[in-house]
Amino acid sequence: MENAKVSVVIPAKNEAPTIRDIIKEAKKHAFEVLVIDGNSQDATREIAEEEGAKVFPDSGTGKGKAVRVGIEKAQGDIIVLIDADGSHDARDIPKLVAPIGLKDGVDMVIGSRGKGGSDELQGDIDKCIRLLGSIIINLLINLRWRQKLTDVQNGFRAIKASVAKSLNLKENITTIEQEMVMKSLKKGCKIGEISSHEYERKHGTSTIVLKKVWFRYIYSLVKNLF
Asked: Cα–Cα distances in Å, from 130 out to 8, 110, 166?
């Protein structure tokens, strides 16, 4: 999309150690940066405001809710979603955006850990189970829509704003990523991928507790697969 305006949306909760650098890099590639703050108890909101980001609160119910708020508030032609914990490389934003809207272009581009690798999906048993679950979900979505996607669950992605706003997304947690892919494919949208590495989060621990959310991934998959 020539001369397209890019909105970068950053869901964040208690990410004061990393949010500043992510906003600074994101601003190089966007006309607006939105931080969706999930009731942070640290200086996340204050730092984001200092760096010139637009800050919007959400209910704190999960990443999915923050993504939905960000999509609603974004004013650009393309929306880029990126995590606030430093696991995604904001320098990859131009690579995400570039394929969108070309003559034979796509409607969404995902930064694939399947192509770029991940430091988060290896190590302990929970991470191995997450990786296995991701592989199975990818396989089922690919079979259903005859795709060759390698990572439907990574949150680092770019999508046409018009598409994102039309999807009627419902998920409140990280299941929103697979929901977004399936609803886009149902609409006949084209989805592409770039190679992007997922780094280990730079501070704290992930809020994803596998034993508490695995059934929600299955429910989301079954609900949207057909």
From this structure: 27, 18, 29
Query: Which of 80, 61, 110, 24 has its CA nearest to residue 70?
Result: 80
Cα(193)–Cα(210) distance, integer angstroms: 26
| Residue whose tokens read 């997304």 | 169
Order of strands, sheet of 191-195, starting from the edge strand that comes earlier in the sequence: 54-57, 32-37, 6-12, 78-81, 157-160, 108-112, 191-195
Closest CA to 162 of 71, 88, 97: 71
- Whether the CA torsion 180, 182, 188, 190 is positive or negative: it is positive
DSSP H or E segment with residue 185:
helix 176-186
Q: What is the pLDDT of residues 150-184, one digit of tens each?
A: 999 999 999 999 999 999 999 999 999 999 999 99
Domains of the chain: 6-225 (3.90.550.10)
- Model confidence, pTM: 0.93
Burial class (CB in 10 A: 0-12, 13-18, 19+), 29: middle
